[in-house]
Write a structure and sequence with these properties.
With 439 residues, this protein is mostly helical. It is built from 18 helices and two strands. Strands 1-2 form a two-stranded antiparallel ribbon. A hairpin with a 2-residue loop joins β1 and β2. The longest helix is centred in the middle third of the chain and has 31 residues. The radius of gyration is 29 Å and the shape is flat. The N and C termini lie far apart (98 Å).
């Protein structure tokens, strides 16, 4: 059946059946209309023929009359459907639609491959530029993810009555960003601006009072929220307040571990992120050509063939990935464990995101990346993987015993230039005293 016809039918069902009606009954109405029109109508190019439309129109008028007479008249607020939203009836009907049976799959694959090549090229350039550029990229991705998640519970009608309320969400977002990243990169910024006294004092002062600054910024946002409360809008405003804080937890928990991995060494950021990308690509390819057995109802297009094929491909890729400048053992075994996690456990982040999208009746979180959806759609598995990679590195790779290099790194990363000079003078004094005692 053509897509336009299905859209028309879905609109008619939405009119015939109230939103509080049972989902199975709504699906029954939808199927009844399709079969009824198919039986009554005789035209080939148009789904709505005269005989079918007459009976459906009578039902609609009868339903509208009963509704208006039995219930008090209330204004029905119509919400504009977002571009990434799908009708609930169509999502139910397409629940068993596999990628291997999709007639437009080659077109979709071409769009997906084209945007993937751009992403890979940009990713390689950013990796080449170094740590701070990778961190800046993570920040940009976070902003896009937050925007997509903020929009899920936005209502245009309520937002028009609350000017500046969206700005409050971003105030909390950037306050959380300042708090999470302040301790991680602050000392590194101090070391990069030591040539300029003004910027050196500014950054070193921020490092010292970073927690106080973040606390009072949050308190300012809290007071702003309380003063912005309006009658008959309390439920919506407190819902947005809770939703904002949940987004901050989801976004910044994983991103903090991602940034920590970056500064532990680009390798520990690059390997986990690459394994997730390899797993996604392999799952898509195996499901594209061989997928016939549905894997999970939350994500109808995922198949067992794609899951198993991606797992094997990811583990093999993990084992052969670090083949230059690193000895075969033990890094190969570390990579293999990361590959097992990326192929077996991390996909559940994608399943969680699929259930999340079904709860909000949307197809994708956004449309920023053609063929992929939004940035949140691409980062669902990366969020779980980043946390595991950091915990694994700290538990099984990071050496707890202190060496000269470890102590020097901590000195350079934790002390300001003035404190380093004081430490140098004290060490020099200690060495001179020992030499005098030795003579």
């Amino acid at each position: 059946m053509p897509k336009d016809n299905l859209t028309s039918l879905s609109k008619l069902v939405a009119f015939l059946v109230p939103e509080t009606q049972d989902e199975l009954e709504m699906l029954y109405y939808f199927n009844w209309i399709v079969s009824h029109v198919a039986m009554k109508g005789s035209c080939h190019n148009h789904i709505f023929c005269n005989s079918g439309v007459e009976q459906i129109t009578v039902i609609a008028m009868h339903k509208d009359h009963n509704t208006s007479s039995s219930a008090p008249s209330t204004r029905r607020i119509r919400h504009r459907r977002r571009s990434n939203e799908i009708p609930h009836e169509l999502s139910k009907l397409n629940g068993t639609h596999l990628l291997i049976n999709d007639q437009d799959k080659y077109k979709s694959m071409w769009i997906r491959a084209h945007s993937s090549l751009w992403m890979v090229g940009g990713f390689l350039v950013i990796i080449y530029l170094g740590h701070l550029y990778i961190w800046a990229t993570v920040v940009v991705i976070q902003i896009f993810m937050a925007r997509e998640l903020f929009n899920l519970l936005r209502r245009a009608h309520e937002d028009r009555r609350l000017p500046g309320f969206r700005l409050l969400n971003w105030h909390f977002f950037f306050t959380a960003m300042l708090f999470v990243y302040g301790r991680i990169i602050s000392q590194r910024l101090v070391n990069t601006v030591t040539s300029d006294k003004f910027f050196y004092r500014l950054v070193s002062g921020f490092v010292k009072y970073q927690m106080v600054i973040c606390y009072f910024l949050y308190i300012a946002g809290f007071m702003w929220f309380i003063l912005a409360l309006k009658k008959k809008m309390y439920e919506y405003q407190f819902g947005q307040y809770a939703w904002t804080h949940m987004i901050l937890i989801i976004v910044f928990t994983q991103s903090a571990f991602t940034v920590a991995n970056i500064f532990e060494g680009i390798f520990w950021f690059l390997l986990p992120a690459s394994l997730i990308a390899i797993n996604d690509v392999a799952a898509y390819i195996f499901g594209f050509f061989f997928g016939k057995t549905p894997l999970i109802k939350l994500s109808p297009k995922k198949t067992w063939e794609g899951f198993i094929g991606a797992s094997v491909a990811t583990v093999i890729s993990a084992f052969v990935f670090p083949w230059k400048e690193i000895s075969v053992l033990p890094v190969q075994w570390h990579a293999m464990w990361l590959g097992l996690f990326a192929s077996i456990i991390a996909p559940f982040g994608g399943f969680f995101a699929s259930g999340f999208k079904r709860a909000f009746k949307i197809k994708d979180f956004g449309d920023s990346i053609p063929g992929h959806g939004g940035f949140t759609d691409r980062m669902d598995c990366q969020m779980i993987m980043a946390v595991f990679a950091y915990i694994y590195h700290q538990s099984f790779v990071f050496q707890q015993d202190y060496s000269v290099e470890t102590v020097l790194d901590q000195i350079l990363g934790s002390l300001t230039l003035e404190e380093q000079q004081i430490l140098y003078l004290k060490l020099r004094q200690i060495f001179q005293e020992r030499q005098l005692k030795g003579t």
